[in-house]
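User: My advisor asked me to double-check a structure prediction for Bacteriohemerythrin before group meeting. I don't want to rely on an old file, so could you generate it fresh from this sequence?
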Amino acid sequence: MITWKEDFRLGIDEIDKQHKRLFDIANEAYDLLKNEFAIDKYDHIVEIIKELKDYTIYHFDYEEDYMKSIGFKKLLSHKVLHDDFKEKINNIDLDKIDQNQDEYIKDILNFLVDWIEKHILKDDRLYAEKQ
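Assistant: Sure, here is a fresh prediction for Bacteriohemerythrin from the sequence you gave:
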């Protein structure tokens, strides 16, 4: 389980709210992983991936518009990080999920937790300090 801490707070209410939603999605994946009663998790994994795709597009667009509005000079390099994330999510091979579902959930979780911790604490902090 990944828990929101004040360290993740950027002080931009809407973006903090959106980041908390990413924590919720990660926790959905964690709960699915720990669910010993779900034998076939494929459909739920696909739902989580779709939600992650849709939500990150929404969030990244919002965040990039915000960075434009404050004249953040590193917008293009930040956008590259967002594009890399989207590419990774879009390149998930749904056929491979069925072979080892729990391993796939772990991979998604590790990727998402790593992204959340590094991106929010390091990369997003840069534009938050410019406000």
